[in-house]
Amino acid sequence: MKTVGLVVEYNPFHNGHLYHAQKARESTGADVVIAVMSGHFLQRGEPALVNKWARTRMALQNGVDIVVELPYAFSVQKAEYFSNGAISILHGLFCESFCFGSENGHIAPFLQTLQQMKEKSHLLEPLIHQYMNKGFSFPKAQTLAREELFENKLPLDLSRPNNILGFHYIRANNTLQKPMKPLTITRQQADFHEETLGSQSIASATGIRKAIFEKQNGLSTIEQYVPAATLEVIAQYLNKYGKLHHWDLYWPLLQYRLLSSSAAELANIYDVAEGIEHRLKEASLRAQNFSEFMQSVKTKRYTWTRIQRMLVHILLHVSKEDMAAAIESVRYVRLLGMNGQGREYLNRIKKNMELPLITRAASYKEALALDVKAAEVYALGLPPHSSHSLLQSEFNEPPIILP
Amino acid sequence: MKTVGLVVEYNPFHNGHLYHAQKARESTGADVVIAVMSGHFLQRGEPALVNKWARTRMALQNGVDIVVELPYAFSVQKAEYFSNGAISILHGLFCESFCFGSENGHIAPFLQTLQQMKEKSHLLEPLIHQYMNKGFSFPKAQTLAREELFENKLPLDLSRPNNILGFHYIRANNTLQKPMKPLTITRQQADFHEETLGSQSIASATGIRKAIFEKQNGLSTIEQYVPAATLEVIAQYLNKYGKLHHWDLYWPLLQYRLLSSSAAELANIYDVAEGIEHRLKEASLRAQNFSEFMQSVKTKRYTWTRIQRMLVHILLHVSKEDMAAAIESVRYVRLLGMNGQGREYLNRIKKNMELPLITRAASYKEALALDVKAAEVYALGLPPHSSHSLLQSEFNEPPIILP
C-alpha cells in the first residue's frame, strides 16, 4: 500500500485542507493518507478551537485515513523542532512521500535553497546572531541575514510562512537515512494569516476562527469555507462543552500562575529567556484580559507567536528540564483515529515499526506525561461542569474508528 | 496610656466581638484597644469573607482603636505558631495586657495547666507521637496522650477550641522577657463552631458565614447578630466586587495548580507531608467542586482544618523554604487602621518600637512578599473586572484612618 504523509493542525479542518488531502492522494497515487496533527496546543502558541478528538473526527470524515498526534514536545515549538518531530513520525509510519502546501508550489526551489544555505551555513549563523543582538526577533534576524548573504537571490521566498515550514520539513527529511519523497502544492487563494473571509470557498483557518468568535452567527458565516463534517463537529462540541477554546478562557489561570510564581521559577520555564519573566509578571498585575496582556508584553525582540508559545509553556508549567526530557522520551506514535483503509495499513506495518503505536494512554502514562498534562490544562479552560467530563477523556478515550 | 491587645480574625465582626472588645477595655481600664488581625487567609485554612481593609473598617467602627495585621506566616498556621506570632506583635506594641475569649472563662486554670504540662513535657511528646503513629490526627493524639498522662485531671478542658488557643497565647506570653497580663472572658452563648443561628444576639462567625452563603436574604438573616457597620461594609463590598470570598471561588485555581504541578513539587509545599500530595492530585482530577474534593481527600490522619491550611499553601505556592524564610523575616508591624486615640498612642510609642511600623506596603516589598502574594491570589478569586481593582490595592491602600 502506498502512503503519503501530511503535517497538519486542522484548526479547524476547512476546504483548503480537503483540497490538500485530495491533491496529495492524487499526485502520489497513495492508498493511504496519514496526517500527523498537533494535539491541544498549536505552533502559534494557542489552544486549539476544539480538542484533538473532535479535530480527528473532522479529518477522518474528509478523506484522511489515519490521524496520529504530534506530541506537545514538538507541536508548541519553532518551525525547526516542529518539523523535525512531524517528519520523524511520518517516516516512522513508513510514508513513501509527504506533501505540504506552500506559497511557492514547486519543490525544486526548496531543494536548491537548502543546498545553497548548507554551503554558507558557517556564515549565516553568526550573521543571524549579530542581527539579534541589534534587537531584532529571530525570524526578522534570519531574513536580514539571508538578504545580506544571498542578496535576495535565493530561489525560495523565505519570508512566507508556509515556505518556511516546508523548507524545514525538507531539511528534516534530508537528515533521514531513507528520505521520503517531498511534494508541495500551491496554497489556494487564502494567505496563511489572512483574517478576512472572501467570497471564495477557501479561507485561512485564522480567518475562519476570527469569524467564529467575532461574528454573530459565526458558524453560519463559515459554512462556505468548511466541509459539512466540520460544522457538525463544532456544533456538537459547543453543545457538549458550551465553549470553543481560545486564550481568553485561560487568562485567569495564566494570570494566577504568573502572579503566584517567583521570577526565578518563571525563568526556569522552557523558552523563557533574557529577563522577560519580570516583564510578564509586571504586566499580569495590570492587564484585565489576555489581549491587554499581550499588548503590554510585546516587544521588537520577540515575535507574537514566540511570546504566545512561551505563555503556553508557562500555563502548562513546563520547565527547561521537562522539555529536554520530553523531547528525549518521545519514542512512540500515538494513534488518534483511523478508517478501515487506515486500519488495514497499520495492521500490516505494526510489527515492523520501531516505535510503539499507542492506542490507549493509560498504558503509557509516563511517556505521555506532557501530553496528558496538556489535555488536563486544556480542559480546565472550560467551566467546571464541562471541564470535568473533558478531564476524564485523555486516559479513557479510545482512538476514533470509522468504517 | 494603658493598652490591651486582642487576637482576632473578625470574619466578620459580630456582636460577640463587640462584647469582647468592650469587656477587654472595661476590665483593664485600657485607653487603647489593639487588635492583631489575620490578613486574607485564616487559621482554619479559608479565605476571609471580605478583605482585610473591609474587616479593619468594621473593627474601627466598633470600638477598636488600632488594627495591625497578623502576617500570613502566622495566620495560616496551627495554634502554636499562630499564637506565637500574635502575642509577639502585641508585645511589640507595648500592650500591658491581652484578653481572649475562652470556654473556661478564668485565667487560673490556664496557668495551672501550663505548669503541669511543663513538668511532664518529657513524657507528653513521645506519647503524642505514639498515638499519631497509630493513625490519629495531631489534635486527637494530643487529647489521648493528655488523657493517659493526666487522667482527665487537668484544670482546663483542652478539647475546646478557644481554650486551646488561649492556652497557646499564655504559653507564648510566658516565654517573653516581660510577659503581658493575660485576661480571659467567657465566650457568650455561641460555641466556636456552632453552625445554626439562634434567637439571641450573639452567634458564631461560622454560623453567620453559613447563613450569608446558604440563606436567601443572607444579609438580613444576620442582622441581629452583627453591628450595623458590619452589614454596611459587607453590602458595600458586594456592591463593589460582586462576591464574598469562599473556597469555591478558588477551586478552579487550586485544581489547576494541583493538576499542573508534579507530585514532587507539591511535596515541597509547606505543611504537605507523608505522600498526601498523590491523594490530592488524584482527587483533583475527579472532583467537580471544592467540597467534593475535600470529601475525597479527608482522612483520619489529618483534621479538616489542617488539610485546608495545606491547600491554602498550595494555592499560594508557598514552599517549605519560603515559609521558613518568611517566619524568619517577619520583623515588622503592619498598620491596617486606627482612630484618633490609636494614632496618638502610636505616635507616642513609635520611636521606642524595635520593629518598624509599616504604613505603606510599597516601601517593604521584600519583607511583605508573602502577604502581597496572599493579597494578589485572594483577589484572583473574583471575576476579572473585580479582581483588577482589588489587585492594585495591596500596594496602594493606605491605612484606614477614622477620627
UniProtKB/TrEMBL annotation, chains A, B:
Keywords: ATP-binding, Cytoplasm, Ligase, Nucleotide-binding, RNA-binding, Transferase, tRNA processing, tRNA-binding
EC top class named in words: ligase
InterPro entries reported in the protein's UniProt record: Rossmann-like_a/b/a_fold, tRNA(Met)_cyd_acetate_ligase
GO molecular function: ATP binding; ligase activity, forming carbon-nitrogen bonds; transferase activity; tRNA binding
EC numbers, comma separated: 6.3.4.-
Pfam families on file: HIGH_NTase1
Residues reported in the UniProt entry to bind ATP: 7-20, 101, 162, 187
Any GO BP annotation: tRNA modification
UniProt key word Transferase: yes
Domain of life the protein comes from: Bacteria
Any one Gene Ontology cellular component term annotated for this protein: cytoplasm
Subcellular compartments: Cytoplasm
Catalyzed reactions: cytidine(34) in elongator tRNA(Met) + acetate + ATP = N(4)-acetylcytidine(34) in elongator tRNA(Met) + AMP + diphosphate
SUPFAM superfamilies registered for this protein in UniProt: Nucleotidylyl transferase
UniProt KW Electron transport keyword: no
Role this protein plays: Catalyzes the formation of N(4)-acetylcytidine (ac(4)C) at the wobble position of elongator tRNA(Met), using acetate and ATP as substrates. First activates an acetate ion to form acetyladenylate (Ac-AMP) and then transfers the acetyl group to tRNA to form ac(4)C34.
Sequence similarity: Belongs to the TmcAL family.
Name of the protein: tRNA(Met) cytidine acetate ligase
Organism: Bacillus aerolatus
